[in-house]
Amino acid sequence: MGRDCLFCKIAAGEIPCQKVFEDEWVVAFKDIEPQAPHHILLIPRRHIPTTLDLAASDQALLGRLFQTANQLARQLGFADEGFRIVNNCNDFGGQVIGHLHFHLLAGRRMGWPPG
Ligand code: AMP
Ligand code: ZN
Hints:
Blueprint: H1 6-11, E1 19-22, E2 26-30, E3 38-44, H2 59-75, E4 83-86, H3 90-93, E5 102-106
Antiparallel strand pairs: 1-2, 2-3, 3-5, 4-5
Bound molecules: adenosine monophosphate and zinc ion (ZN).
Adenosine monophosphate (AMP) binds next to loops.
């Protein structure tokens, strides 16, 4: 576990969250400050700081994260309408929490370019 890492604590159940999915590798929960009608965060249970820290051996994990996003999009009914998956990496990317996470955003039309 990353020392004092908020998302490690959420994954371990030490800090409450509105969980929508979990398995051995992945936890998905509602963002505390939603930027869209649906705003879910998908994280690996294991502490990985950023996408830059993904190793070749994390291929399966990455697949699972995206499969979970697809599954939630279908279950929650916004797959056909569309959605956005976002990863913020490091300072200029806008990353605030140093535990790899993907934002799954849906329920409204997304703008482009992003802010
Ligand atoms: P990022 O800027 O990509 O690091 O995103 C971090 C996200 O975590 C933000 O969208 C926050 O609203 C969200 N967040 C922070 N604390 C919590 C929490 N305790 N439970 C759920 N989401 C959180
Ligand atoms: Zn962590």
